[in-house]
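hiii so my PI (J.) wants the whole complex modelled not just the main chain, which honestly fair. so below is everything: two entries, each one labled with what it is. i double checked the lines twice but i was tired so who knows lol
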Amino acid sequence: MSPLLQGLVTILIGVGGCVGYFYGANLMLDRVIFPARGRDPGANISRANAVRPWLFMAPAMAALGLYLVYPVVGSFWRSLFNRDGGSFIGLGNYTDLAADPAFRTALFNNLLWVLVVPAASTFLGLIAAQLTDRIRWGNIAKSMIFMPMAISFVGASLIWKFVYANEADIGLINAIRAGLGFQDPIDVIQIPFWNNFFLMAILIWIQTGFAMVILSAALRGIPDETIEAAILDGANPFQIFFRVMVPQITGTIVVVWTTITILVLKVFDIVYTMTGGNFGTQILPSYMMSYMFKDDGRATAVAFVIMLIVLPVMVWNIVQARKEMR
Amino acid sequence: MKSHAGAKSGLSWAVHLTVAALVVLWLVPTVGLLVSSFRDRDQISASGWWEAPLPVEQTYRVRTDPDAAVERHGRVVLSGNVFDSEDSAGSGTVTGFGVTGRAPAEFAPGATADLRGGGRLTVAADGRFSAEADAPFGRRGPTIYFEAETPPKVTLDNYRMVLGADGMDRAFINTLTVTVPATVIPILIAAFAAYALAWMEFPGRGLLIAAVVGLLVVPLQLALVPLLRLHQAVGIGQSFMGIWFAHTGFGLPLAVYLLRNYMAGLPRDIIESAKVDGATDFQVFTRIVLPLSFPALASFAIFQFLWTWNDLLVAKVFLPAASETKVMTVKIADDLLGSRGGDWGILAAAAFISMAVPLVVFFALQRYLVRGLLAGSVK
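here's the output for the full assembly
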């Protein structure tokens, strides 16, 4: 059976199965388990209604539990064992990591990414949002800046390989350098330390659109009175933007910032495609992939380190969500 | 909004210019890829894509065929056209020619050069050449070096090559196979859960919502090793079945979160009056909430589609590494970049094939995508 056909069959089975489950289980609950008849129909109805939410949530909870909750525990447990999983070595993988200079490079680079990418994307997105909101063709401009969101990280990396290429007839950067009179082309991907920033530029290119869309909506939500009052008080456009508008959307800026931060900790595609982690560009997710399939103990230990870095954001998100629900 | 901040005309020009610069900066890399994918491979390495509409100057080397020589007035004459050779581009204008590889454009077209083996050679601008010598040429005819301007060539060869010999067609189908079930199945599962979390009263609801918010940020990396082992233990192994399950699981937190937020915002009156009229929860969900939630369902579907289509990590881990099951991202990152690392036209075509569908989806359904983003992060 061709995979495509298999896919179609899976959709039919999957959708049919889901519909069948929800409809059938709901029917079972009302007709068979707690039917609204017998000695006390009222009690049966309320019992059925107490069970129903769990029935609706069961598939999602099972999938979430298996695919996201169990792995947190499973990964941690696996990280306590050696390469082939045969013997328990406690925190041995973690102490190995701490002693590995490649891991420290990856951690340091990741720190750079976390500092630079969210800041740059959010800042550029904020500027783009404010400027495009003020011109007639702003929506077209927004579309163009937002477009990289649709492109895969691999595709985006290839796009930028054309910009960074080490030949003046292919790479824009070297073409510009040649135009300015420099003789030899440079390979920006191999310049120690700074090559990290060239890789970050790719993710900034992708994420600025995301920041712009969300911040633009937030800027539009600012009450006009505050801006009018500032104009009457004689504020200039820059003062209005930085002193009146930005403070009113701090909450949204924080959300955008943290969302991009989380993303930065997950993306391995760009480094993998551009350098394969060479030339001192390794980051944690790509460092982990270099151990995947080779040393599961080491790989899960790296994954757990990433989890620990994400943890504060996770807690903060949950606290915020609970605050909003109240 | 437009009128605030005292629009001064000078500043407004600055705004237009800044936005234009930003848009150009954002578009140029992608345009470069698109243009390169349609260019001839020799032209790509001879001139930058920004010069694509201009003629390209390239150096060629053609070997003449001594058997075509004829005798005229006691001399051996070999004539023909340099562009007839398979080694040159087919047509163009000769800007210079030479008899050694070290100085391929030593002579201007129409000039006469002395051949090293005796005799003289002249090449005209339109490519016609004639070599004359007193004695017949040896077993090999004289080699002509020349520089020519060839007109820009637009070609689909890169696409043909990458879809045929490089197997991108198979990878495209594999990507489609992974994406469609992985987009459709989570929606239904998430919709029921989202309804329960939005409109049904039960103990622990708040905690569950908080848990979903927490799961939104769990790094995928954690799931890879334990789940692959689990899949292998239950016999799924690395397969399409496995990746569908994985994408379904990984997509669910966002699906539940987006849909719950949207459903919770539906007007309470509609749902309560339906319940007063005797509708069960199942009916309220299927007849009222589900149709009203269409925008949220659409935005999640787009997200999940883009994410699964563009994914590299999950495909690398949960699909077998064999070439018949590779999706496009893996194909590009693992195969093409290695075997065709310097073949820019092929790489550009491959990248563009993998980007085409998401770009169409993006431009056609941008509205829903934006709405989903806003629901997912501003609330």
